[in-house]
TrEMBL record:
Record bears the keyword Lyase: yes
Domain named Urocanase Rossmann-like: residues: 216-422
Urocanase N-terminal domain: residues covered: 87-213
Biological source species: Mariniphaga anaerophila
One BP annotation, GO: L-histidine catabolic process to glutamate and formamide
Name of the protein in question: Urocanate hydratase
Length: 423
């Protein structure tokens, strides 16, 4: 696509003619199917909410298509309207605009949705399993169109991915005002949020997905490096060189862990169950070596420790299997943590031991009660293995991902004698 065609596509917004349906791309990491939480009347409302973006002449075609998406994925993403152009942050002068500030925001949005950056790009999710930029592709198209049209005397107001419109303001005002996940307190449970998200009226934007400011693992690699260096300095003897750090998660922000450990001079071992996430981090250089067999992984880890290598090793598998293997063989680990997305434990943020990646994705949608039970069983096993390793000298810390909170809800042995978290 030429630059002229790209600018024209941005300025058009919702296409005047329906684009062809797009095949489901199996090469891209997709969000897991969300559980069915809407009754019949609510599904009708979800369809109305989706169809409001389009002329009535398209409704006969789009209504059954969107209903099928709702059935198959638990959400309406409007895959048909995913742009034909490649998604990445272009030089700012390539964007059609009347305001350079608005053009910079278009650049940021496209960076958040770049397949090299986003966790589930076709579902408009940047990181954390459910950190969304928009709820659907119509919202993306409209927001980009408004940004191309607006001046420095206007402000675009966004609510959970939905562009409310351009409002008069002034050059010193924000060009965009964003809110995400606004919930009335009496209806702010996880269950109510899931329902409203399926209805298309709210989204969870995380900190930098729905505010268009995500810069990938590089944004946290320095902080993680300092954390690891201080953990090694305060809680183990000698330098950080050759120390073993074990954790999990390579999907989003967690992808910084292996690189941070290498910068600190350590041996990093990070588990990730999603093969596409591991492949992305390996190709981008965030991890040095990938293993799918625990015996081979541990052998390589011990060689690296002995040679005081600064190297990152990814384990394609479940982190609980890794923790239990290390505990069973009584292997000395220096530092441990966890960066699975446990703020979102039952919808793709945590994958329980004993189930494959595909089996988990199926169960969380089709039998959510059983999946929740499996998650809690897995967390109890994970904590048991971690406790054994900490008794052998490992220092473990929660890195802000709600691991301790969800482990406590699971009934894991995560409290000390004073009733406080052990870690």
């Amino acid at each position: 696509m030429t630059k002229v065609q790209f600018r024209k596509a941005i300025q058009e917004g919702i296409p005047a003619e329906l684009p062809e349906k797009k095949p489901f791309d199996l090469l891209v990491s997709h969000a897991p199917k969300r559980k069915d939480v809407l009754n019949l009347e609510e599904k009708k409302l979800a369809l109305k909410n989706a169809l409001r973006y389009f002329p009535k002449k398209f409704h006969d075609i789009l209504a059954p298509e969107f209903l099928e998406e709702l059935k198959n994925y638990g959400r309406i993403y409007m895959y048909r309207f995913r742009p034909e152009y490649e998604m990445y942050a272009r030089p700012i002068d390539e964007y059609p605009c009347r305001s350079k500030q608005a053009a910079s925001i278009m650049l940021m949005i496209q960076n958040n949705l770049d397949p090299a950056v986003a966790q589930h790009p076709h579902e408009l999710i940047t990181y954390g399993g459910n950190g969304a930029v928009f709820q659907n592709w119509a919202q993306y198209l409209l927001a980009m169109k408004y940004l191309a049209e607006m001046t420095d005397n206007q402000t675009l107001v966004m609510y959970s991915g939905h562009p409310l419109g351009l409002f008069p303001s002034h050059p010193d005002a924000p060009r965009v005002v964003v809110t995400n996940g606004m919930m009335i307190p009496n209806y702010s449970s996880k269950e109510e949020y899931e329902k409203f998200n399926a209805l298309g009226v709210t989204q969870y934007g995380q900190m930098t997905a729905g505010s268009y400011m995500y810069i990938g693992p590089q944004g946290i690699v320095h902080g993680t490096t300092i954390t690891l260096l201080n953990a090694a300095r305060f809680h183990s003897k000698g330098s950080a060189s050759g120390k073993i750090f074990v954790s999990s998660g390579l999907g989003g922000m967690s992808g910084a862990q292996p690189k941070a450990a290498v910068i600190a001079g350590m041996v990093a071992v990070v588990a990730e169950i999603n093969p596409k996430a591991i492949q992305k981090r390996f190709e981008q250089g965030w991890v040095d070596e990938v293993f799918s067999e625990l015996d081979e992984l541990i052998s390589r880890m011990l060689v690296a420790q002995k040679g005081k290598e600064a190297v990152s090793l990814a384990y394609q598998g479940n982190v609980v299997d890794l923790w239990e293997k290390l505990a069973k063989e009584n292997i000395k680990i220096d530092l441990g943590s966890d960066q699975t997305s446990l703020h979102n434990p039952f919808a793709g943020g945590y994958y329980p031991v004993g189930l494959s990646f595909e089996e988990s994705n199926k169960m969380m949608a089709e039998n959510p009660a059983k999946f929740k039970k499996k998650v809690y069983e897995s967390l109890r096993r994970q904590v048991n293995a971690i406790n054994k390793l900490t008794q052998n000298g490992m220092y473990f810390f929660d890195y802000g991902n709600a691991f301790l909170l969800e482990a406590s809800r699971a009934g894991a042995e995560i409290y000390d004698d004073r009733g406080e978290f052990r870690y």
